[in-house]
Design brief:
The chain is an all-alpha fold and 351 residues long. The protein is built from 16 helices and two strands.
């Protein structure tokens, strides 16, 4: 993983250091980094939304394929993929974004769990030497990875003798000790859900508990918005209601593999985010919070730029069709009435 993601570690670490030097605050640096990352993902959001709109516009053709091939799922999927390709719809376009977000967990985690390397600029060998010194002095216990060294940071901040020894040996300079707090919270600490742990140090753990709560709430909001703002939501809801009343239509409501994968990913990501907030530094939870807010704003942007205009245009087309149908029906009724009058007049003339 280090070989594959090493360039990302260095890039994200360099950006975080730039933002920290500019703003002088670790939390703000994480926020700006998140905004930049999510901003770069906006084009993928737009592309995904366009694909969804195209798929919605082709729903009639999709239903026709379902009727044509019936239970032959293999042939149906083959023709569906062919039709999507011909119309410029990426079959996996809706899954790319969640996969990228999942992929970005590792470099973000590496940065927030190794700030001495990526923000303070301490050499990895020096970090390793400090860990060995801390273990020999009895300050550190257990196995601590030199690249994931939150325990080391805590020891440096709380044990002055250990810090002085590290400085004297040249492992770290006092100027490399940076403030990792944000709004009074130590972002190197891990939020706790155990009441015993929380009330053992409420001044530290109670504020940190706000982070997983916000992560959960914002992701639920994001999921609901994704459902309600997607193209054709009302039509799908009405179709599901009809399918419940008519078992014969249930096959038509079966989702394809892409939609099922999207649904799994949409619900898997919030669970992963929530778990990480209780098992990783609070800075990771701050990343999830800002990322969720950016995602919600992006959803609203894409909705008003693409989805809503599409829905308005679709409603106008349907209204024109309805008016044309009514007009045609009126004409047919008028022609029928004329025919009836002609027949009546013919009978009178014959009499």
């Amino acid at each position: 993983m280090d070989f594959i993601l090493g360039p990302l570690y260095n890039l994200f670490g360099w950006l975080t250091k730039v933002f920290y030097d500019f703003f002088g605050n670790y939390g703000v640096a994480i926020i700006i980094l998140t905004v930049v990352i999510r901003g770069l993902l906006i084009p993928l959001n737009v592309r995904s939304q366009k694909s969804m709109i195209k798929m919605q516009a082709m729903q009639g053709k999709t239903m026709e394929l379902q009727r044509k091939y019936g239970d032959n799922k293999e042939k149906y999927n083959e023709e569906l993929m062919k039709m999507q390709k011909e119309n410029g719809i990426g079959g996996l376009s809706g899954c790319i974004l969640p996969i990228i977000q999942l992929f970005l967990i590792w470099p973000i985690y590496r940065i927030v769990s190794g700030p001495l390397i990526y923000l303070s600029g301490v050499a990895v060998d020096n970090v390793k030497s400090m860990i060995e010194l801390g273990q020999n002095m009895g300050v550190l216990s257990g196995v601590i990875n030199e690249k994931i060294h939150i325990g080391l940071i805590s020891a440096l901040n709380t044990n002055s003798d250990f810090l002085n020894s590290c400085v004297e040996k040249g492992y770290i300079a006092l100027g490399q000790m940076i403030d990792l707090h944000f709004l009074g919270m130590d972002l190197t600490m891990t939020p706790a859900f155990n009441p015993v742990t929380i009330f053992s140090n409420p001044g530290v753990y109670l504020p940190l508990l706000l982070i997983p709560i916000l992560v959960l709430v914002l992701n639920i909001v994001s999921i609901q918005m994704t459902k309600y703002l997607k193209p054709g939501y009302k039509e799908e809801k009405e179709a599901r209601e009809r399918a419940k009343k008519n078992p014969a239509r249930k096959d038509q409501m079966a989702q394809d593999s892409t939609e099922s994968m999207m649904k799994i990913m949409n619900w898997t990501m919030p669970v992963i985010m929530l778990v990480t907030t209780f098992s990783m530094p609070a800075a990771m939870g701050l990343y999830w919070i800002v990322s969720s807010i950016m995602g919600i704003l992006t959803q609203l942007l894409v909705y008003f730029m693409f989805t809503k205009p599409y829905q308005i245009k679709k409603a106008e087309v349907e209204l024109k069709k309805e008016n044309a149908f009514k007009h045609k029906k009126i004409e047919e009724q008028a022609e029928s009435a004329e025919d009836d009058n002609s027949k009546k007049n013919g009978k009178k003339n014959r009499k």
